[in-house]
Amino acid sequence: MGKVWHGLCHVSTPFSTTNQDGPYELASHCFETNSNILILLNNWLHSSQPQAESDDGQNDWNTLEYWATRLRPLWARDSPSSLASSDEVGEPNERHETIVIACNRSGTENGVKFAGTSAIFSMVRDCGRPKLLDMMGKDEEGVRVWNVMV
């Protein structure tokens, strides 16, 4: 199965942030250790940002985009991976794939609405964008089984 890491709720949220420059503590750690799987266990609240006009309201796209952005070193063309090409253990592999599973609470409790939108991504170094493989709706409760090769 390779190297598996997990993050709990706000570990993917840095103290200060810009989308381009980070910091990206969790993603950087996964990058440096050639992680194969990253599991995020979250209780993220529903985004207060306006959704796109074309949005059908079934998903919290702002939250999904935020998670992908916080993991930028795992997929961006301008990440340190574009300078690396080693396959040695502990050194970045240029086309290394990390499967990211974001499990997020859904529903409402005490008037607080959670984002739901659990998802699975394929993030390949230096490919320029994360690939969303599948996701659950923001109000969908349940367990989804995803089979992936790592």
Task: Give a structural overview.
The chain is α/β, with parallel strands linked by helices. The chain has helices at residues 25-32, 61-70, and strands spanning 4-8, 37-42, 97-104, 108-109, 112-113, 119-124, 131-135. The strands form two sheets. A five-stranded mixed β-sheet has the order 1-2-3-6-7, with helices on one face. The longest helix is centred in the middle third of the chain and has 10 residues, at 61-70. The radius of gyration is 15 Å and the shape is globular. The model is unreliable at 81-90 (pLDDT under 50).
Keywords for this entry:
single chain, 150 residues, five-stranded mixed β-sheet, 2 helices, 7 strands
Q: What amount of the residues lies in strands?
A: 15-25%
The rounded distance between the terminal residues' Cα atoms is 6 Å
- Mean pLDDT score: 80
The portion of residues assigned to helices is: 10-25%
Gross morphology is: globular
Can you summarize this structure?
This protein has 150 residues and is α/β, with parallel strands linked by helices. It has a 5-stranded mixed beta sheet, covered by helices on one side. It has a two-stranded antiparallel sheet with strand order 4-5.
